[in-house]
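Worked problem 6 (solution included).
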Amino acid sequence: MGKRDAEYTVLAEAVVEAVGGKENIISVTNCMTRLRFVLKDDTLPNAEKVKAIKGVAGVMNQGGQYQVIIGTHVSDVTPFVRQVCGISAENAESAGENNGKKDNLWNRFFKTISGCIMPMIGPMIAGGIIKGLLTILVTVGVLTKTDGTYLLLYAASDAVLYFMPIIVGFSAGKVFNCNPYVTAAIGAALVYPDLVSAVSAEGGISFMGIPVANASYASTLFPILMASFVASLLEKLGKKFIPRMLQLMLVPSFVLALTVPLAWLVIGPVMNTISGILSTGVNGIFGISPVVGGVLIGAFWQVIVLLGLHAAFIPILINNLVTTGSDPINAVMGLTVWALAGTALGYALRQKDIEKRTTGFGCMASALCGVTEPTIYSIALPNIKTFAAAWVGGGIAGGVLGALGGRLYGMAGDGLFRIPGMINPAGLDISFYGFIVCALAAMGAAAVISFIFSGEKAVSAADGAETNEVNADGSVDIAAFVDGTLLPIEKVEDETFSQKLLGDGVAIEPVDGLVSAPAAGKIVTVMEDSKHALGIELANGTEILIHAGLDTVDMKGEGFEMLVSEGDSVKKGTPLLKFDLDKVAKAGHKKTVVLVVTDAKDRILKKFATGENVKAGESCILQI
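Solution. The predicted structure is:
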């Protein structure tokens, strides 16, 4: 097992245990950055414990799913989680069908719709990008629409949309627990060329005397979804009366013979009407005031993403696109990603710490490639004012694009990959040029505002840290954290510390049980149960661990009192914890208090003379 595999295994085991164990897990899938669990009891997980796991960026419990934010490498982690849970990739999504768990109607509806649609999102986006590039090549005269190259590539770009009933039919068969090849065949019947030609010909056709509506089901979504649901019911019915030895042949025959006519006579026309009403309604609401709609969507769409509710909008947006051929709402949504990229840029430009600057630029690059979670969880949420910068930038740009009438013409990615989707098949127009200008405006406005507000954290990642806590060379002076005698860490009677397995540092043999902050910083970790240790992020980004007593975790908090909480800002001398020296001694443990630099950010530790008596908050014992 490689190092990465070992790390992912440890992460998977920790996450599975934290969400209630594999017995509590019905299914697990992933999106771009999140593990998405369906749990039997979503009250069992402790969100704070889940977030405390190394490798976990955050937690959301929305839309019937318990979402654990991992990052863009989540697809690499998911197989290890499934392995720990004993869930195979093939049944990962269907494992939750017969679990006895009852979601509310809203959650069940959108889980079903999303399960049918999500597998084809990637190919749809690819098609949109190719189609946009082809339009550019035609516009500049490199290709014509009669060239073989154009025709082949256009087929590649348009096939997913045109044959959507077949592709969605296959996915729907899996979601509805029926034969997916039968539901795909039903989708194929909806776009069967000879039948399409016959119903559209003058006079049309009828089925047993019932006229078949002249309709087209290419590039449609809802008709095949409903037809697949009906097919699943008919399949279950057929299995009840058809002998088992004949089911392989006769059940599909029974389902196809009934569902295909129903799809053309009833289901298709009804669902096409509903699709049109839904699309007209959504566009009508946006059309009342494109400027206001653009401002609201541009400002707050990423909040919807943050809450994990964005998947519920996907069917509506796809229906908009395939019904009308374009969508103004999705066009504005694309600007929010550029605004977050600007937030990351402003943050990066303001940072003096190399690692934080690198983080900012990395988040910007990720956002420009369409993945916003790193920016949200690394920059925007820790300093909500930088998130507000994205709201302002996205809102302004969204209002302008709404006023210009910008529309998305093809499913595309986000960030830079959204641009091809803004290309009108008829040629470059205001949607393309307007989107580029508005995207740059969103990014620029957010960057300026983020740069201003990030200044509050430019010197320190720790809230409340004072500028004079950092020396001119970027180092931080560490004061004694308890009254007593300073010891070299090599003399600590615990190999974990003396051999520097956790990092270098110093120790103090205390004469008093009050432990205080050695410098300004932010509490990032607290041992809530044992109350014997905590972690601090200092003003220059380095992280330290303060550990009171040796092996005192065994005391389970007896004789210890934690005086701070995770997320608290502290200054030099702020009381952190108290412990009873006598109780520690009676329990057979050493009283030594250890400070370990767990993440030095490649800085050099400068130690001062040991063996001296030191005073908490006054004596300088170390420089990082």
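Discussion: The domain at 3-103 is CATH 3.30.1360.60 (Gyrase A; domain 2).
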